[in-house]
Amino acid sequence: MRNSIPRHIRGLTFVLVLLASFSVQHSSTGPTLAQAPAAIPRTADGKPNLQGVWQVRNRAAYGLEDHPARHKMPPGRSVVEGGTIPYRPDAVKKREENYANRYTADPLASCFMPGVPRIMYMEHPFQIFQTRDHVAMTFEWSLVHRLIYTNGSKPHDGIEFWMGDSRGRWEGDTLVVEVTNHNDKTWFDMSGNFHSEALKVTERYTMLDADTIRYEATMEDPKVFTRPWKISMPLHRHKDMDRVLEYHCKAEESEANGNFERKEKTWYPK
Amino acid sequence: MRTLLTVSRGLLAAAVLLTPVSFAFAQEQAAPPAQGGGRAGGAGAQGGGGGRGGGAAARPPAAPIRRLPDGKPDMSGFYNAAGRGANYGLEKHERWSFMPGGDGIVIAPADGKLPMQEWAKAELKQRQRPEFGYDDPTAQCTQAAGVPRPFYVPSPFQILQPPGTLLVLFERMSWRQIPLTDRPHVPDTIRMWHGDSVGRWEGDTIVVETKNLNGKAWLNEAGEILSHAATVVERFTPVNADTIRYQATITDPIVYTGPWTIEVMFNRSEGELLEVACLEDDQDLQHLKDIKDEARAKEAAGKASPAK
Fold first, then answer.
1. Is A265 within 8 Å of B227 when comparing Cβ atoms?
2. What percent of chain B has pLDDT over 90?
3. Nearest-Cα residue of chain B relative to residue A107
4. Cβ atoms of residues A91 and A238 within 8 Å
5. CATH topology of domain A42-255
6. What is the CATH number of the domain that holds B141?
7. Phi, psi of B61 (to 5 degrees)
8. B165 vs A129: CB contact, 8 Å cut-off?
C-alpha cells in the first residue's frame, strides 16, 4: 500500500519539482516580474511550512453562494467560481427542501461531523501539523481531525467516512489533496447545499505569504452536479494562538440541556 | 448504508451490546505478556491489545528503537494499547454486572489500589448505579474522553512527531497536541476535556504535564473519578521499534489521598486510522436517557409525596 508509486516516477517527480523551483527562482530574479513572490516559511525538507493555526474570514459556512441574512445566518458573498453551483435539474428540489428545513435537517444541527470541505471554512480555528508522511489537522470544533497521507498510499476500498479519506501530494509548492470515500449525509453549508456518496473533492493549498494560504476545492459528483465546480478563499494565520482550544458541539449542547448534571466536587467551579 | 464501527458505551450500553464488549475484552485478554516490558507490561511487540489492526501471527523479534535525524526516538505510528480491562476498572477486578474483569494497571501505590478519599468511594458507588450510565460523557458521545482514558480504551490511535510536538489522533474522533516546549499552561479559567499539555524530553522519554482539565470526564466506564484539580504527568518511553511503555501519574487532591500511577503498553499495529462516528451512528443514547429520566421522575415523585 505505502510507496506504491514506482520508484522511477517518484524520482521523476523530484526532478520536475526541482526544475520548477529553479525556474521560479530564475524568473523571480528576471526583469519581467514586477514583484518577487513573498517569502514563505519552509520545513527542513524544503516544502512549504503550513504549520500553525488558521481560519477563514468569510461566511462560506452559512452559504457558499451569495446569500442574504437570515435568522442565525449572517449574509455573505459567493466563494464559488462563476457564482453558482451547477446542480442537475433533478437535484435542485432537494437543495430547496434542505434549505427550508435547515435548522433541523442540517447535520451540524445534530453536531454530526461536517465533512470536507465544510470543516475547512467553519467559524472555528484549526491547526496544521506536518511530517514527512502526513499532514495532520486538528480542529477546535468537537476535536475533529484530518489525517492526510502524503506517502503515496491509496484510499481505503469500500469504506465511507464522514470526514472522507484524504491522500495528498506536493505539486511544486502546492499541497494537492484528493478526498474520496465520502458518505451522502454531509452538507457543504448551512444553506443545504449537498452531494452524494460519489463526491470527489480535490483540494489545493498554496501559501501566498507567511500568513496566508490560498485554499481551493474542486467538487466532482456527477449524480448531483452537471460539471465540476470550484470554491476558493484565503485562510488566515492566527498570529496570537499557538494551539487551538476546544469547542465540543455535543458536550456543550448536553450541558446546556441539563443532560450533564453539574458535579460540584469535580467540575471546575466557574 | 455502510456503518464503519459501533462503539459500546456505558453500563447499559454494555448490557445492550454485550457481545461486542465481550469480544473486545476477549481480544484484550488474548494479548500475550510482554517480554521484558514493564511491570504491568502488555503485549510486547505482538500487536493486538483489544483494538483493531493488530494480532498478526508470529513476528520476528522487535528491532531496536527507531530514531529521528536529530537522534530522538521516533515513536510515530499506528498503535493499539494493551488496555488490560482498564476501561472497566483501573484496579484488578473480577467480572461484575456487565463489565468484563481486568488485571489492573495501577503500579503505584504498590497494592494496586486507588487511594480514594471517603466521599469519592461513595460517589463511585453512585456512578455505578444503572441510571448513572448516562452520566458518563462518553455515553453521550463526547469522544474527547479526557486524560488519560483514550490511552487504555480498546480503540487505536496514531502518534505523529511533527517538529517540536507530540501529536496523537484517536480513532474515536479526538486529538491531543503536546508542544515540547517550556511554555506556561493556558490561563486557569480555560478548561478543556483534554486539558492543556506541555511536554519535554528526558533522555528517550517524553514527559508530559497536563492541567486545565474540566473535571467532567470519567476515567472509564466503571465511573472512576478525576476532578478539575488533577495534574496528570504522562511518560512515553519507547521499549523497542514497535512498543511504547506509557505511564500516567495522577495527583488530584480533591479525589485522592495521594498520587497514583498506571502503566500500559502501546503496540505498533498493521493498518491505518479509521473514523469512529459515535453520535452519528448512535443506537443506545436515547435508551440511556430514558432510564435516566425515569429514575429522575421516580426521585421527584418520592420527594413530592409525603412519607407514609
1. yes
2. 65
3. B280
4. no
5. Lipocalin (2.40.128)
6. 2.40.128.20
7. -55, 145
8. yes
